[in-house]
UniProtKB/TrEMBL annotation, chains A, B, C, D:
Record has Glycoprotein as a keyword: no
Cofactor: Mg(2+)
Pfam families: Thg1, Thg1C
Protein name per the record: tRNA(His) guanylyltransferase
Cofactor info, note text: Binds 2 magnesium ions per subunit.
Region of interest (Disordered), ranges: 222-258
GO biological process, one term: tRNA modification
Positions of the Thg1 C-terminal domain: 139-274
Length: 289, 289, 289, 289
């Protein structure tokens, strides 16, 4: 058969499995969004429509990929946390990465007219992505702290920067010069004394970014509810292995009854650096050191 | 600074460079397009609108990524060939793969209304992708032969299959049973004798797929032409290395004058298994064994 | 300079870092040791000289590589556990793997005459190796349980097998047939009733393998002692990062005073499947889930 | 069974195949051989015993690994070239790399007393290794040119350096200072005028390194000869694929008759930067661009 003698070229396709039992974070970034935001006249320092469109796409990704427990977005980037035991596409890296990136992009483009009804897309936006493996709960906490701290720093800078330009009449070069070397408190003070802006009163969406979390709403059988649902963490191998993996988990017996947890997906703008967010959502991390 | 103490999490981002001086083939596949084609009522066995939309997206990818020399598409998949010396994104795998996949998806969704003016998208389509490295010209030739042979085989099967259903009144189960074990000549005969279809008269688009090729139209300085342009193959390293890599290439002196080659991107439906296609386009392969 | 124009070939050397903060297990296996043990007339079912030579080589590896906390050996294989925070050779996989494998081999060959004074080496023995990353304490416990359980199973089988041959006069084929399908208790019974061997009285070296552990003997300054010493776990990044990584560790302050822990390397033949071994040596695992 | 419930830990062993149809170069380097050569009183600038011991180990590696076509050694390093179509250990990287490194080490230690009869090993020498994939003949040529050019440069420098010390009475610091910034011709002149040494008369072993090559000695059936033998390059996949890979090879018909080529392994000290070495040995490269 004609196809057969060429089919050996599949031997060049190399496997790319991700390490089992390790958290996966997939981070997407807008490709050349500096230009994209200018061409589509995004409001500065923050365009709420653009941020809500990012949230919209990210939320749809979480509806589609049940093993994503948490996402965090700011500006033109979004990070997705997969449960460490996910076996999505047998943990093949390129498959997970491209499917997610493509679906996010598709949701973004398809959702655009709803959020920008008066601004047609002038050219196709795109995103790049990467997957990073994190072996510990601590590293996951620190990863999300890193992104939220970054949001804080960027937003404070941008808020003053654009106030200097839009209200203070400076050029962008002048505004950068004005801000060079200033610490956080100076920026707060500058905002308040020159422009009457109390930074603390700025929307949490801008200061804290978007936190999209899979919340457990009940433990009733999945059949009764319309919302998306997950199973308690299945282990990545067979039953015997999972008994070994976490003998002390009392929920294993429930798992065997295949009780599904009702979950909902919520968009928040809250602190995720401190402990409270995580302590009240023990299902996000899996604590099997 | 708040961001700093968490920034160590970047240490978990591992490098993923692709081997230098090796052809890269990036293949995209529609994700669950069996369902997608049904939900959007694609014509069977081939929907010309859908195929043209794929070509549209692929052509735009080639306009955006100058180092893609050739693409081949059939059904819901497309393969893109990068020149072996491309240094796009320093050959970082995830970066190349996701940017291309995302851009293709974006072009597909944004282009949809033009090709399906009466069929709104019911949900976001998506694609998965992979990059495969091929070290030799031979393997590249065989890769594209593999895909075009596959197109042939699938199209012949599907053409008879849907004729049996649409014109012969069979169910899908019956049609599969009718075709089981039949060889190519039997299918041709069946098409002609039962349904009066001469397979050879079917559109080359369906029989041969879509071949999108970067053609060299002239060697005049790029400034004069409106079309996209490429430079003659730059080597992947510095000047000294490239002198070593291909001492006998007479074009190196031109390269130093930065003469750009005028190129155009053409969509063809021609044979790429035989030698002619390749012999008339020596720029596609780089012959440095 | 002559060397320079060719030096671009180094660009083909791709990075191969291991994921940070993840346990590394390096397992070595004798290459074709079935034949090697016959050619050098190893005693069956266990050759104490050969096992002690393996221990000798492994112990020397642990003296050389300070970040190995534990090793486990049976037959012609040895597994080495690196602390999860090791930064040996910047965690380059091939470098760690080959250096360790080569050093072990060298110790084995150089040590041979001491353990086999009357049997000259007839040809060069060799070992293959691999590194596996394990993200959790649980996986490490299970890894070593897997190897020790394997030791148990193999040794019981081999003990009966060779008794059937050496004392029972069976051929190897007959002995395998006799044992086919027998459970553990049957094998114990067979040993005792046919050959008067009480399996429980067999040397722990054979039943449990060799456990080579880095023990902490004191916390006095390293200068006073002759034994090898380690520092309390340094984190893999800079100071700021490590503060983040393990805020609750009271020992961090000591680490800053550069107190070194006195350690010794002990060869044991004890159970490592149960909890006791690990609970009494909390320094082996690092408990930062 | 006890072993089973832990066996899931094997899931953490990730595949590491090398790209098919790509040349593999495995380079070994002595680990801390600066110290090793001092402790064992190697002659300076070159110790012929040490170099011959390296050749001995490398030659034995080539006898053991039939798919190595060529090796090049200088000082404490050796590079081995595997044919591009080798399927050794299914091209698993760690397996090939460690087995070769371990076997080389074993040969080195076991061969030591023959080359250093009066100098017992004071501690175990070891080597690190890496595998680099090269897709083209050009890159292979340049790789070996790189190593031999390096040999030239180092040997000229070391020859003058040690003459300045041994015959000129300089300290090492003074000798380095004397040589700083000198070009090749100055070093030649310095050797001749100050010490009466004609560099061109120095042994080729020192100037050109060791070239160990698998030569084809005849094409008679292997059964008649005692030497090692190889088969003509089998392709890495099944017959159909290999027909596609190299249709024009007339030797394929012989391959099917399983004619083995008689080969011998020769140690040379010749130029490998120019074309002659390669043109007279067309079997070293496989020319399938």
């Amino acid at each position: 058969m004609a196809g057969t003698k060429f089919a050996y070229v599949r031997n060049f396709e190399l496997p790319d499995p991700l390490l089992p039992d390790t958290y996966l974070v997939c981070r997407l970034d807008g490709h050349s969004f500096h230009r994209f935001s200018e061409e589509h006249e995004f409001a500065k320092p923050n365009d709420e429509r653009a941020l809500k469109l990012m949230d919209h796409a990210a939320k749809n990704v979480m509806i589609e990929f049940k093993d994503i427990m948490l996402a965090f977005g700011e500006s033109d980037e979004f990070s997705f946390l997969f449960r460490k035991t996910t076996n999505l596409y047998n943990r093949r890296q390129a498959k997970i990465l491209t499917t997610l990136t493509s679906y996010f992009t598709s949701c973004y483009v398809l959702g655009w007219p709803e959020y920008f009804p008066e601004t047609p897309l002038r050219y196709p936006p795109s995103f790049d992505g990467r997957i990073v493996m994190y072996p510990t709960d601590r590293a996951i906490r620190d990863y999300f702290s890193w992104r939220q701290a970054d949001t804080h720093i960027n937003n404070l800078y941008n808020t003053v920067f654009w106030a200097l330009i839009q209200k203070g009449g400076q050029t962008t070069t002048e505004a950068h010069a004005t801000l060079r070397g200033t610490v956080s408190s100076t920026k707060h003070e500058m905002l308040y004394s020159r422009f009457g802006i109390n930074y603390n009163e700025i929307s949490d969406r801008f200061k804290k970014g978007s936190v999209i979390v899979r919340e457990i709403s009940s433990e009733r059988p999945a059949a009764f509810g319309p919302s998306t649902s997950i199973q308690p963490p299945p282990q990545f191998t067979n039953d015997k292995a999972s008994q070994v993996l976490d003998p002390p988990r009392p929920k294993r017996s429930k798992a065997k009854k295949k009780v599904k947890l009702e979950t909902t997906i919520e968009v928040l703008h809250c602190d995720i650096i401190g402990d409270e967010f995580w302590l009240t959502r023990p299902h996000l991390l899996e604590n099997q050191s």
